[in-house]
Specification:
This is DivIVA domain-containing protein. It comes from Auraticoccus monumenti. The chain is mainly α. It has five helices and no strands.
């Protein structure tokens, strides 16, 4: 029994020094790594993400909670951005209509000169006799 214990300790010492080979440089994954889409990530992109488990791993519960929260927040932001863009576009349309109305009501400079001279000098002589 002592011989077996000494042999196990010897193998452990050799393994600790790295002479039996080291760990792989790249982590071992349990699933195929899928690249992220090239477009900006949206809610459904985040929901669809599945991460592989490496030898050193991660807490699946923590990552799942994080991804659920991230998906929810991205979705809420997308909805808020869409609402603000819609609000801005309706204001632009309303502003454009007001500007057109203002432009239609503006008096042309030649008409303004006629109006100002009529106010200062009174009606023109041909207008008095009429």
């Amino acid at each position: 029994m002592a011989v077996v214990a000494v042999a196990v300790l010897a193998i452990g010492a050799v393994a600790a020094t790295g002479r039996l080979g080291g760990m792989a440089e790249e982590p071992v994954r349990d699933s195929l790594r899928r690249p992220l889409p090239p477009h900006p990530l949206g809610e459904q992109d985040v929901v669809a993400v599945r991460l592989g488990v490496a030898l050193r791993g991660y807490s699946m519960t923590e990552v799942d909670e994080l991804l659920e929260r991230l998906a929810r927040e991205v979705g809420e932001r997308d909805e808020r951005i869409a609402a603000l863009e819609h609000q801005l576009s309706t204001q632009d349309v309303h502003l454009g209509a007001l500007e057109r109305e203002r432009d239609e009501r503006q008096v042309r400079p030649s008409d303004r000169d006629d109006l100002e001279s009529a106010e200062v000098f009174g009606p023109r002589p041909q207008e008095r006799s009429a």
